[in-house]
# Entry
Amino acid sequence: MTESKFQFNYEVYSDISELSEQDAWLLTEARTVTEQAYAPYSNFHVGAVAMLENGEVVAGTNQENASYPVGICAERVLLGTVATIHPNVPVKSIAISYSSDDVKSDHPISPCGMCRQALLEYETRTAKPIRLILSGQEGKVFIIETASFLLPFAFTKSELG
Ligand code: THU
# Structure
């Protein structure tokens, strides 16, 4: 028997003022675009904004539905839009934020499992890591070098032969 370990480093900033100008700009866009979310059922408004390798910027927000499972997270709305408008262009970074009438928005958001799988697919597809900039409307910011860190033991294309 051997024991293995999975661990990764990530950056923790106490707030947006510590970020580079470009990262701060992208996070501000993500914070602002939460206003476009359609979240009448959860009141949890999520915004995700991607900076592409070609300099284009694309945004996505969560879109809920009266039939709850039909709702889509901001990250997957974003990735579908990126892939449609700018096919095969790698995504450099995605800033993700949220706002809510019910809970304080002062700690970094954590993408759901389905979105982690979708982010990984996009990384695999373009063979490029996607940097994640995670925050709320205020407070700490986490920067994670690649979305794949969030999904160890992932099921990927290669399993399918
Ligand atoms: N949601 C996202 O859009 N992204 C996440 O990373 C977490 C959750 C959405 C789904 C649903 O519309 C609402 O937030 C509450 O779960």
In short: The CA atoms of residues 97 and 136 lie 5 Å apart. The first strand starts at residue 11 and ends at 13. The mean pLDDT is 97.
